[in-house]
Write a structure and sequence with these properties.
By secondary structure, this protein is mostly beta strands. The chain is built from 2 helices and 28 strands. The strands form 7 sheets. It has a 4-stranded antiparallel sheet, with no helix packed on it. A 4-stranded antiparallel sheet has the order 2-3-4-5, with no helix packed on it. A hairpin with an 8-residue loop joins strand 11 and strand 12. The protein starts with a helix and ends with a strand.
Length: 347
């Protein structure tokens, strides 16, 4: 495998100055195994999703106005799919064999056949076209047990002081509920599917909203004294811990979901837009413009940084536990084309 020029340069710096964890653990937590260039594609990428039926990774190229499709086994680029304006959150519904796209440029959730990417339905949401920000809708979460797609919309893109989390039934493509959130910039959503709680980053308020899914309303908000630009989120339901990543500086926080208090915080790479939690290995993967941070959960209240790695500015990623793979997509840089990085996760 040939490294891109930027990765080769950054890797030499990282390897020259290993962290203490790297010195102790000779095997790195991940190994880069493939890089697929995407010449001609410029601008940011957003969410990634796995089509488990075909073993395809699908990526939202939000500024290129396409969905980019890859073979998950090899990392090969398969096709570029038009028909979207500003794709953000993606979800795959295996029972329907459909791809869901939160399209901020279209102010809707779009439903595509995963077999041929033919659009089969459209659910309009709060119109975000009035400001041209193309972020309504933006962030979402697919709750598979409830067959519900929760999608954030409204807020600053719609020139509103509040936002909504809209619940869409993926079986019949119908809206089943709306949750009002007093904030103009919603970011990541996480759901404790057994406890009926939904958590959402209210970034402009520097808060985390706590939603009772039975009542369909915000019942509490949490914060931390130095929380800033809280963007990414993941949940460890077994240990009742919510991981929230802020920016400027890059810090990952572990909140106790029973109390709403921070039990631990650690520095991480800055400008994160994605995070993955692997309960099997007890690792947290944070994807940021500055690079990827990998942390290990020593206990529910203690976390150790294993490594920081360069990713060419790739701030969104996908962890596939079944195949022990990590996928990170990065934009075009001054010395590299945009591309998909494929990592093997090591024990």
């Amino acid at each position: 495998m040939k490294l891109t020029p930027a990765l080769a340069l950054c890797a030499s710096v990282v390897l020259s100055f290993p962290t203490f964890a790297q010195a102790v653990h000779h095997t790195p937590p991940v190994t880069l195994v493939a890089w697929t260039p995407l010449p001609g594609i410029e601008g940011d990428f957003d969410f990634l999703v796995l089509d488990s039926k075909r073993n395809h990774v699908i990526i939202a190229a939000e500024e290129h106005h396409t969905l980019e499709v890859f073979d998950a086994a090899t990392g090969a680029h398969l096709q570029s799919v038009p028909g979207v304006k500003t794709p953000h959150t993606l979800a795959y519904v295996p029972e329907k064999d459909e791809i869901l796209v939160a399209d901020g440029g279209d102010s809707s959730t779009l439903f595509f056949s995963a077999a041929d990417f033919r659009q089969v339905d459209r659910v309009p949401l709060i119109d975000g076209s009035v400001t041209g920000k193309t972020d309504s809708p933006d962030v979402g979460y697919y709750d598979a047990p409830r067959h519900t797609f929760y999608i954030g919309n409204g807020g600053k893109s719609a020139n509103l002081s509040y936002s909504e989390i809209t619940a869409i039934d993926v079986e019949n493509h119908k809206i089943t509920g709306r949750i009002r959130v007093e904030g103009a910039n919603l970011e990541a959503i996480a759901v404790d599917e057994k406890a009926d709680w939904l958590y959402v980053n209210i970034r402009d308020q520097k808060k985390i909203g706590v939603v009772d899914l039975k009542a369909m309303k915000v019942v509490d908000t949490w914060t931390a004294p130095d929380l800033n630009l809280n963007t990414s989120m993941a949940i460890d339901t077994a240990n009742h811990r919510l991981f929230v990543v802020g920016r400027k500086p890059g810090i990952v926080y572990a909140f106790d979901t029973a109390t709403g208090k921070v039990v631990e915080q650690q520095p991480c790479m800055n400008i994160a837009d994605g995070i993955a939690w692997d309960p099997a290995s007890k690792r947290i993967y944070i994807f940021a413009s500055q690079g990827m941070s990998v942390l290990h959960q020593e206990s529910a209240d203690h976390y150790t940084l294993l490594t920081n790695l360069p990713t060419n500015g790739g701030k969104t990623g996908l962890f596939v536990p079944e195949t022990k793979q990590l996928f990170v997509v990065h934009p075009k840089t001054s010395i590299d084309d945009a591309g998909l990085l494929v990592y093997r996760v090591n024990p």
